[in-house]
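I am writing to request your help with a piece of structural work I have in hand. What I wish to show you is a protein chain and, alongside it, a tokenised description of its three-dimensional fold. Could you please explain, in whatever detail you think fit, how the structure tokens follow from the sequence? You will find the record immediately after this paragraph.
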Amino acid sequence: MANVAERNMLGRYYVNTRLGVAKTKNEEDFPEFDLDSNVYKLLTDLIEVNAKGFRGVVVTALTGLHLNEDYDPINNFYGCNPRSIFESGIWYALQENGIPCGKSDPLNVAKNANQLNEDWAQGRRPQSAAMAVVEYLRLVMTAKQNKRARLIDYFFFRLWKYSQSITGFKLAEIESSDPSHQTIGNKLVGFTLKYPESGNLPQYLVAQLLSGLFRASETEVIGGDESVFGTNTTSKKPADIWLETDGNPTNLYEVTVKPVSLKRLDDSLDALQLTGHLNLPVTFICRFDMDVRDINVIDGSFQYKGKRFDFVDYKNFCLTVFSILNDEECSTVIKNVADFVQDRNISMRTKAGWNEFFANKI
């Protein structure tokens, strides 16, 4: 019996192999799964959604079935030790092939549910994707050997095809010989608020603006600009973004476009305590007044459990920094945000949103 490392390697090899086969196929190779077929519709609901976890659940289930023919993903999903084979095997194969995925997608969606059935699908978002997982896996598990192989090959083909549609998406370029920083800034801020990507885009924009602001100084901007799609880390940071001078943190920033609750402040205090930065100033960059309704912010400040937190409006903060940047720094911010949006893990909805804001408008 293979040890854990060997098993994870075999899982990675399996996914790489299946995707390798998928790259050689086209729609004509799967005539039984035409546009009107139930399987085509199921995989559209399952794969072509912003939520990456449902794809990850199925990839993990199929890999577990390959590693152990007695494995039953529907009634005992965790029987394949999904965290290990996904995070230490499958994830790398998906990354190598440009498939959108997060480090712990299947676990985030499965949520410790052993049975993948209607009860599990209830309340998942989108529920149509969760139900597609259930129905597709039932088809796989009840199919005879040849039909099962076809269903699996078609799944990986659709997965590959979807990834190609994302990486091939063309973002609108921001072109102007003499753009107004405020005009561009307003559009970028509006875009990140309408398509925040779970808060990643506002945080990234703030990090880029601060980096431009301090580009020629000895102050370094830490956090906020690393990939939010890489390996999942348990290491604690004092804040989302912070400034350092000579390696010493000076100012800490939390960026959010969600209401700031007392629980959020407790989380911040925990991180500050753990990293030894309780004495440093913390500023929340959020939406006024929407995100501070639950706390009594007076003159931009609120004291909680002996710690004073400051608050500034996200839009005002961004536009103020845009007014300070020179043309080169402003262009760098725009390019970096565009590159971030182009990443394969950014949803198609957000990519289309970029074009909604910037196509032929500046």
The chain has two domains: 4-168, 181-358. The CA atoms of residues 194 and 353 lie 8 Å apart.
